[in-house]
Amino acid sequence: MPAHTRLADELSALRAHYAVHMPADIAAAMKRADAALAASDLVGSALAAGEFAPDFALPGVDGVPMRLSRALADGPVILSFYRGGWCPYCNLELRAYQALAGRMADAGVRLIAISPELPDHTAATVRDGGLAFDVVSDVGSEVARAYGVAFDLADELRPLYTRLGHALPDRNGADWVLPVPATYVVAPSGEIVLASIDTDYRSRLEPADAIDAAAAAAPGWRRAA
């Protein structure tokens, strides 16, 4: 994705594509599940700006645990919860961040992308996307639960996901739990300064906005020229 392209435009184009090409029965089931999730209190009960981010240690693609508190010692951190490498909307978001890798480095901002997928699948996402930031595996969704962004996929969707090749227990080694798309910007103190949570998996915060918020939260961490 070119650095000048807005993620929202890419997501909108993909959404339009699936509106035409998604089988009608799957589209209808997803619409019902989307409405039920939107009507839940998930967004209201998730961690919000002004609260402190729970610490965690999750394995990266090299198997070495990535600890949030250790990353925060070096500067502000963006946490991006995504569904998995099988999700095309997630891949657009991850690649949009990769396109801004230089901007993050210059601002002294670190990105940690989190999904419930097994490390082998996470490694494939990193390889296929050419990602140079931290991507970690939250198997069992314990961290997503701690942040309040985890939910159980609707029963109606489970056989349809399997039909599409996305049987979550196979990819996640656990259950049918997913995170909603969520972006947290965390200051070095551990305080959440921006929280963007959306039950619509086709909507994401613009990476540039997250980077700007992180840089503003800790300007003293900017990389020296």
List keywords for this structure.
44% helix, globular, two-stranded antiparallel sheet, 225 residues, oxidoreductase, single chain, redox-active center, five-stranded mixed sheet, 9 strands, antioxidant, EC 1.11.1.24, alpha/beta
Q: Can you offer a commentary on this structure?
A:
The chain has 225 residues and is an alpha/beta fold. Helices cover 44% and strands 17% of the residues. The chain is built from eleven helices and nine strands. It has helices spanning 7-21, 24-39, 42-45, 68-72, 88-99, 101-107, 119-129, 142-147, 158-163, 168-172, 207-217, and strands at residues 57-59, 65-67, 77-81, 110-115, 134-137, 150-152, 177-179, 182-186, 192-197. The chain has a five-stranded mixed sheet. Strands 1-2 form a two-stranded antiparallel ribbon. Strand 1 and strand 2 form a beta hairpin. Helix 1 (7-21) packs antiparallel against helix 5 (88-99). The longest helix has 16 residues, at 24-39. The protein is globular and about 55 Å long. Keywords: Antioxidant, Disulfide bond, Oxidoreductase, Peroxidase, Redox-active center. Its EC number is 1.11.1.24. Pfam families: AhpC-TSA.
Radius of gyration over C-alpha positions, nearest whole angstrom: 17 Å
Structural class category: alpha/beta
What is the straight-line distance between the termini?
26 Å
Biggest pleated-sheet summary: 5 strands, mixed
* Tally of separate helices: 11
Series of secondary-structure elements, N-terminal to C-terminal: HHHEEHEHHEHEHEHHEEEH
Number of strands: 9
Family: Belongs to the peroxiredoxin family. BCP/PrxQ subfamily.
Pfam families: AhpC-TSA
EC number: 1.11.1.24
Enzyme class: oxidoreductase
